[in-house]
């Protein structure tokens, strides 16, 4: 109860009501003409960006809190998306162009039966599990070897980027069995229900919002635990952590794997809402974009990356309509500007305001407070800076 | 042979057989039982370094280095730059693998087979030359992470500080004169305070052996004096190895009765009381000659 009343818990509860009740109900119940009715476009866009928000949050845990910069998180996102896409392709049934039991691209390639890795594709539960397990397993194996070999910093980032690029090339091939460069699209149903209805759109939106908020709550529990403080210690001084008796590999590997799994969940929620998944999601540029959202919002916080995902993608959807050819220049300039002038991102700039005011009011007060109660509360300066 | 002796011998034999039977056929040992991963200090030596050689691209950073640190001993190690002092600490703490030689903790634990974190958990703490603390965590949290306890991820995910642990941290904060800074991020401390915090982090780890690489570098005279007092108070409870350039500090620690080791070009040049060592002709040559 105490947690629910804290600003964090309260904020999350309000956001939960907004995404799970208010928006979906307004979308379904009101006629499209009404001024309170969220348009199809708006709901789909917000749903998509919330998926990106989960990705950015996962990135924040790995990069902002543990100091592991991945430029290949698009790979884990896409793997989750492909796992869900396989199920959606099977749900098309005989309604495809070729009216066959097999997905259209297989008919086109003249395949007679499903390849082995499509064995579970008729089961929603199995594909959902795969959407989490596949990225998790890949991240675990990759992370195990990379962390054990003590690959760090920019070298690690380059390898993640190379890996997502290699995977993209693999998925581009028709023989891989994932629809080549067209990927999966033209979905008709999910769980037997038509996919392009206001009701389904509202339901997916609510589910995505609830997942995002659950992810935030989980991440909050992680970073406020001692485990989370070890992660930050690894970021600040890994050698000290090691010589204090902690095994940094176990910590890095666990948060890295969790981060990849969160991206997989985001991908699985993204595909039914956007209606397409193709190898473009694995491109190095996609991975870099995730890092940019996180940096813009403020990587060493939890809400920051989510704010960053909304800010950058909101700007993107407006920009690509008004000046489509300049978007990438703008994105690059934004990244440079944030790195130079707002190292703590939007959230850091927002927090700077009350802190500057407090500083003007006099720094002595805080010192005295610290002396008065020897035991620090969880709201001390460091925790406030990194976790709030 | 008297009958009494015969009797006693038969008695011992019976007891031995009984013990053998009770142990389920395994060889009954009369020795002390040693738990795995528990160092054996029965010989009074905490650390053995035997004939250790480390070379980097042909340059011998350590050349047949041997020394032994007693249990509870405070040992000062001096030597000119490049004498191999830091490399020696790297070898003991598992950061560098030597090309030849052995390093044992107690008489039974081979440190060369363990990784850095395992060595730390056995009870060997190390202070780096450059003070290394977690800059974005508060001073209190820095000590919390260093506190002895289960280091595995799952344990720390659900860890809660007990009242005893809080008291332990508060006591350490008082001991290292940082109680007033407990809530501040460690990155805002002065250089000397960071050195103290790192020493405090080592102490709450409750190590048997402390390796301190230039602990008073960058400290004011007053801080240096306090550090010397602290280290002297630790003698007996911990074994300490202090590597330092500051001869005043060394004199203060050695107090004319503790052993000092002089390293030069990767091996021990001289060992003994500070006064003896200072008269040693080769030491004089290394420090003053050339």
Structural class of chain B: alpha/beta
Strand order, largest beta sheet of chain A: 1-4
Output the CATH class name of chain B: Alpha Beta
**Rg of chain B computed from alpha carbons, rounded to a whole number of angstroms:** 23 Å
- Structural class of the helix and strand makeup of chain A? mainly alpha
Main sheet of chain B: which strands, in order across?
6-7-8-3-9-10
| Average pLDDT taken over every residue of chain B | 88
**Share in helix of chain B:** 25-40%
End-to-end gap of chain B: 72 Å
Helical fraction of chain A: over 70%
CATH superfamily (homologous) name of chain B: P-loop containing nucleotide triphosphate hydrolases
Got a strand count of chain A?
Answer: 4
- Strand composition percent of chain A: under 5%
Q: Show the largest interface.
A: A-B, 38 and 42 residues
How many angstroms does the end-to-end distance of chain A come to? 19 Å
The number of helical elements of chain A comes to 17
The pLDDT mean of chain A sits at 88
Describe the protein's architecture and organization.
The complex is a heterodimer of chains A (388) and B (290). Chain A is mostly helical. Chain A has a domain at 15-282. Helices cover 71% and strands 2% of the residues of chain A. In chain A, the strands form 2 sheets. A two-stranded antiparallel ribbon of chain A has the order 1-4. In chain A, strands 2-3 form a two-stranded antiparallel sheet. Chain A is globular, with a radius of gyration of 22 Å. Chain A starts with a helix and ends with a helix. With 290 residues, chain B is an alpha/beta fold. In chain B, strand 9 (259-264) and strand 10 (267-273) form a beta hairpin. In chain B, helix 6 (163-175) packs antiparallel against helix 7 (191-204). Chain B starts with a helix and ends with a helix. The chains are: A mainly alpha (388), B alpha/beta (290). Chain A binds chain B through residues 222, 225-227, 229-230, 232-233, 235-237, 239-248, 250-251, 254, 300, 367, 370-371, 374-377, 380-383, 385-386, and chain B through 93, 115-117, 120-121, 125-126, 128, 132-138, 140-141, 144-146, 151-153, 156-159, 166, 170, 173, 179-186, 198, 201, 205.
């Amino acid at each position: 109860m105490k947690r629910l009343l804290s600003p964090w818990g309260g904020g999350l509860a309000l956001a939960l009501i907004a995404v799970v009740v208010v928006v979906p109900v307004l979308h379904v119940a009101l006629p499209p003409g009404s001024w309170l009715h969220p348009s199809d476009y708006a709901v789909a866009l917000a749903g998509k960006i919330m998926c990106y928000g989960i990705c950015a949050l996962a990135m924040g845990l790995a990069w902002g809190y543990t100091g592991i910069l991945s430029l290949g998180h698009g790979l884990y996102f896409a793997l989750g998306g492909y796992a869900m896409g396989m199920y959606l392709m099977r749900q098309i049934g005989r309604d495809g162009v070729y009216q066959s039991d097999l997905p259209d691209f297989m008919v086109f390639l003249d395949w007679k039966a499903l390849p082995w890795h499509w064995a579970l594709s008729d089961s929603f539960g199995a594909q959902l599990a795969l959407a989490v397990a596949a990225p998790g397993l890949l991240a675990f194996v990759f992370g195990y070897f990379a962390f054990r070999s003590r690959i760090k910093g920019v070298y690690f980032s380059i390898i993640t980027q190379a890996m997502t690029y290699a995977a993209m090339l693999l998925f581009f091939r028709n023989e891989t069995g994932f629809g080549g460069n067209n990927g999966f699209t033209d979905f008709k149903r999910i769980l037997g229900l038509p996919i392009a209805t206001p009701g389904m759109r509202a339901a997916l939106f609510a589910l995505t919002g609830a997942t995002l908020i659950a992810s935030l709550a989980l991440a909050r529990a992680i970073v406020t635990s001692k485990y989370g403080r070890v992660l930050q210690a690894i970021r600040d001084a890994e050698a000290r952590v090691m010589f204090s008796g902690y095994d940094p590999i176990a910590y890095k590997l666990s948060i890295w794997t969790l981060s990849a799994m969160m991206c997989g969940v985001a991908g699985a929620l993204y595909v039914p809402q956007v209606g397409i998944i193709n190898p473009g999601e694995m491109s190095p540029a996609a991975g870099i974009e995730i890092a940019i959202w996180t940096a813009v919002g403020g990587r060493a916080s939890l809400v920051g990356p989510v704010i960053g995902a909304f800010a950058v993608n909101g700007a993107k959807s407006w920009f690509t309509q008004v000046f489509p050819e300049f978007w990438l220049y703008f994105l690059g300039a934004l990244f440079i500007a944030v790195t130079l002038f707002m190292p703590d991102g939007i959230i850091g700039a927002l927090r700077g305001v009350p802190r500057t005011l407090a500083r003007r009011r006099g720094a002595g007060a805080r010192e005295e407070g610290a002396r008065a109660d020897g035991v620090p509360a969880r709201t001390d300066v460091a925790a406030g800076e990194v976790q709030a | 042979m008297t009958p009494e002796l015969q009797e006693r011998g038969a008695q011992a034999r019976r007891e031995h057989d009984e013990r053998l039977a009770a142990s389920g056929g395994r060889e009954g040992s009369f020795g002390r039982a040693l738990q795995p991963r528990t160092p054996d200090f029965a010989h009074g030596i905490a650390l053995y370094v035997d004939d250790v050689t480390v070379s980097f691209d042909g340059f011998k950073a350590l050349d047949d280095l041997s020394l032994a640190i007693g249990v509870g001993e405070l040992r000062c190690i001096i030597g000119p730059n490049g004498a191999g002092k830091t490399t020696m600490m790297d070898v003991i703490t598992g950061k560098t693998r030597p090309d030849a030689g052995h390093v044992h903790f107690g008489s039974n634990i081979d440190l060369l087979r363990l990784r850095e974190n395992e060595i730390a958990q056995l009870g060997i703490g190390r202070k780096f030359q450059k003070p290394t603390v977690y800059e974005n965590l508060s001073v209190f949290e820095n000590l919390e992470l260093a506190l002895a306890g289960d280091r595995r991820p799952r344990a720390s995910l659900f860890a809660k500080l007990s009242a005893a642990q809080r008291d332990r941290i508060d006591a350490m904060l008082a001991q290292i004169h940082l109680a007033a800074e407990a809530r501040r991020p460690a990155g805002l401390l002065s250089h000397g305070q960071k050195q103290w915090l790192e020493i405090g982090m080592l102490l709450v780890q409750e190590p048997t052996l402390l390796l301190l690489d230039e602990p008073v570098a960058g400290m004011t005279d007053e801080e240096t004096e306090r550090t010397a007092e602290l280290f002297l108070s630790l003698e007996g409870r911990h074994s300490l190895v202090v590597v330092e350039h500051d001869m005043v500090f060394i004199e203060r620690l050695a107090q004319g009765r503790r052993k000092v080791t002089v390293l030069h070009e990767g091996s021990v040049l001289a060992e003994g009381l500070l006064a003896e060592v200072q008269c040693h002709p080769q030491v004089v040559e290394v420090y003053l000659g050339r």
